Amino acid sequence: MEKASIVGKLQDLVISTTEGNINTTIARSLLKKVGHDVADISIESLAEECFTSTASISRFSKKLGYSKFSDMKQAFIDYQSNTKKFINKNNFELSINQRDSSHSLNEYIKKITQSFQELEKNLDLEQIDHLCERIYTTENVYFFGTHSSGLLLEQLQYLFFSCGKYITYFNGRMSQRKAFQQIEKNSLVIILSTEGNYFLKFSDLLFNMSSGDNYTVLITQNDQMKIANIFDEVLFLGNSTIKKAAPYQAQLFIDILYSRYCQLYS
């Protein structure tokens, strides 16, 4: 079962809970604190901020899977710490410093341009056309992806709508877990995961999916994933010296995929 982060749980709760519900109020209040120091927050101050009781905060903590408020608070602190490390690592990898901003900007754009060139080397228009054909001829098509990949897929879903093709994509981890369990036979399942982090969250469902009667496609930058072997087809975006370039590659790939689909079937 997926071990969702505290922020993931809060986001799923906000999406699935009726507006005006006290749980929605508490979740929104906590999400607003993601970029701030929460080490000093108390159950009393949170209850006062949300115009509710400490008992409601305790029930909310248990609803999210924590035995008590202090455990939920610690999960929040751990999330902030891990996120800070991740952001610092990515910013160190590719950043624009103030001392030599012109040179830094040039290097930044140069790295992104190189990632596009890597995509071009790996791009097989015939393979893309075959994928377009599958999308066109398959009645039930599903997109799966989270974070930046999810945003791109949501955009692509709307683009396909405009071409008269309905594709299923649900935002949010819990919604995607439910969608996995409702996939109909002989469907086309397309997963976009630039680095492969998607598999850390949904590995149990992915193996079940691969043993079904569906055609599965993985789009990724990471060509070292052993789990890629469970897919019927893998489209590589191309290697890049920096992870931060992966979303740019994915955006360009999606633009090309949609362009080819429109040319062939619009």
TrEMBL record:
Indicate the transmembrane segments per the record.
none
Pfam families in the cross-refs: HTH_6
* SUPFAM superfamilies cross-referenced by the UniProt entry: Homeodomain-like, SIS domain
List where this protein forms a coiled coil: none
Q: Where is the HTH rpiR-type domain?
A: 7-83
Give the superkingdom in one word.
Bacteria
PANTHER family in alphabetical order: GLUCOKINASE, MURR_RPIR FAMILY TRANSCRIPTIONAL REGULATOR
Spell out the protein name for this chain: RpiR family transcriptional regulator
